[in-house]
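Intended use. Records like the one below are meant for learning the mapping from a protein sequence to its folded structure. Do not use them to infer anything beyond what is encoded.
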Amino acid sequence: QAAEKLRAAVSDLSISFEHKNAPADYVTISIGAACFQKQIPLDYEKHIRDADSALYKAKSEGRNCVRLF
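Structure written out for the chain above:
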């Protein structure tokens, strides 16, 4: 939910440069996230790889979205 709120907030930004406004959907983000369970020891490298995989999935599915591993 937090990642989706962040994605939506970025999409709603009004960007201007040299007194020119960018189109409404000019700046977007894609987010990949990985979840963990408290009872299982953290493997930071694995979680980063998992989140990276989810990010590439988001980009391949059209960008401007959130994907979980």
